[in-house]
Amino acid sequence: MAALYQSQSEEASTPILRQYLRMAVRWRYVILGAVTACFLLGLVVTLLMTPQYTASSTIEISRESDKVTDLQGVERDASIADQEFYQTQYGLLQSRSLSEHVAAELKLIDSPKFFEMFHAGGEDTAFKLVDGRFSPAGRATRERVAGEILRKHLSVNPTRMSRLVDVSFTSPDPAFSAKVANVWAQNFIQTNLDRKIQATSYGRNLLQGQLAQLKQRLDESQRQLVSYASSAKIINLPAQTGNGGSSAERPIVVDDLAALNDALAQATANRIAAQTRYEESGKAGASAQALSNTAINGLRQRRAELAAEYQRLMTQFEPGYPAVNAVKAQIDQLDSSIAKEEGRVSNSQLADYRQAQEQEQALKTKVEQLKEDYLDQRRKSIQYNIYQQEVDTNQALYDGLLQRYKEIGVAGGVGVNNIAVVDPARVPKAPSSPKLLINLAIAILAGLGIGAALAFGLEQMDEGIADPVGVKRALGLPLLGSIPKVDAEPSEMLLDRKSDLVDAYLAVQTNLSFSTDHGVPRSFAVTSTRPREGKSTTCLALATTLARAGKNIILIDADMRVPSVHQSAGVPNKRGLSNFLSGEDNVKSLVFPIEILGFAAMPAGPLPPNAAELLTGDRLGHLITRLLETYDHVIIDSPPVMGLADAALIATRVEGVIYAVEADAVRANLAKEAIGRLLTANARIIGSVFTKFDAKKAHYGYGYGYEYGYSYGRKSEARAA
């Protein structure tokens, strides 16, 4: 049993991919049907579709047009931020206004053939023909519908990592497709130019208004500046341009103050020089002017001569000598003249000194006055500078706008476009759709998807047990063996010891021998969820294989509602189990041999009014005990579990129960409920037998294994024969 459980555990852990493959194989006809239906549907739809022709025109969209008024460069490199620009262009290519413009240029708004080509219009009064023409009253509606049709059949496909864009149009008419694609590209270029011209004109008008406003502000600020300068008596000298630069305006008081400072410095120097000369003049004629005075020098020279003469006479004569006195008188007169002359020089130097001092003081007073004037003007210049800055700002704004106004005028006159047609559309030779192979491939894939969905749904809704693994997975019972589905009568196939049926039940018998410590249970019953699941055949086959193994076997037909064992033996069902359960004790009279299969059997006997009442007593257990004294094994063909109490009553009297499960017939939930009833009655379920198993229809992996096992050796014998 351990080996059996291990085998079941390994089968239950089947990989998920194999489970899906088994499901696909099981429902292969559903999947194939879905694929076939979708394939045929795709084929029919493709053949019935109207051929469509696609024409493409390739255009180049540059980030900016060539610059004319700016000398910084010719073109600007594109960047990630330029994606916004290109997305805008793609949106403009599919704009409503452009589509309606194309429709108007191609005269599609009043063309019945155009609307008929695309099956547009319907019952709208705008599309009703009057004398073969549309009514003018519905032109606006037809224009809107024509634009929608063009946009619906237009595709814009940018080429990656480039500025190229393919503008494609699809219609049933190849020439019309090429015509629309080319006109669309040309109109896009023209509308782009129109937008630029409109933007230029709007910009010029806007700048012109702003220039007028700025000119008025500039004039007002200049008048305010001049008025304040006049009231504050601010006089500024104009700016001077020198080598390497220019100086700003400066107040005139600055120049006056600088000049007076220079004059004051010179007056101070003159005063110091005069003071020095005056102080030197008081040193007994030792001043520089006295020494350089010609008259004083002549008098001093004459005195020196007379003093020499006086000294000579004194050596010869007495001091009172008239000649000496005369010379002395001359010397005194000369000293008086020299003193007078030096006094005159000294007075002249004093006058110069006082004049220099007065001039210096006057300049100091003037400088101080200019300093006060300068500081006062500095205070007034704060407001003046504010007005001046306002004038400068307005002047700069005015000059900048004026320059921009001139540049826009030049650019508007040039009219350079940043969009160009690279390859015009040509009339397509072959239709772009429908594509038969692609449509069929899509139909097959859709069929596979639908088939897989149907298979998955059916698998989820199907509660039947389709393969041996499902017995363990769904019911939790160990599998004793799988019995193949046979076309011949089971009793006849049991006679052929090399038949698939015999081989399968021999495997069941082998697994059954490991169910207890003494081998095959001495008494066991075979039951199922509902009738015709192969329980009676299982009883008959196990009795046959055990008998051929040298065991003394008796088979009891306990299905007293639908008995079947007597039919396999070909004997009447006049006496049997029901007689013993009713009180008869002669067991031998109720048993008959089935010599062809090698075991004995006890039929069900006459059908009682209520079989469950007969089974509630101890008579069945007593019967099994008596039979085990004679037979090695007692096999009971039990009624089905569902709807009856018979199977549960019989299960409590035997050593174990074998549960027969028909492949793809019984629902798993129903079988679980039946097993639950047996377990509630404390019955021991030995295992299950999977009956009527068609290996060819089973999930993937079982067909080869079971068919190979059942037919092993048959083909070689057939070839040998």
Automatic annotation (TrEMBL):
GO molecular function list: ATP binding; protein tyrosine kinase activity
Which InterPro entries does the record cross-reference, listed alphabetically? Bact_polysacc_biosynth/exp, GNVR, LPS_length_determ_N, P-loop_NTPase, Wzc-like_C, YlxH/NBP35
**Annotated compartments:** Cell membrane
Keyword Ligase among record annotations: no
Q: Where is the Tyrosine-protein kinase G-rich domain?
A: 388-456
| Entry membrane topology | Multi-pass membrane protein
Keywords annotated in UniProt: ATP-binding, Cell membrane, Coiled coil, Membrane, Nucleotide-binding, Transmembrane, Transmembrane helix
- Give all residue intervals belonging to the Polysaccharide chain length determinant N-terminal domain: 17-106
Name the residues that span the membrane. 27-49
Q: Determine if Nucleotide-binding is one of this entry's keywords.
A: yes
Q: Which GO terms describe its cellular component?
A: plasma membrane
Q: Which residues form a coiled coil?
A: 204-231, 257-380
Q: What is this protein called?
A: Exopolysaccharide biosynthesis protein
Instruction: Give the organism, scientific name.
Output: Sphingobium baderi LL03
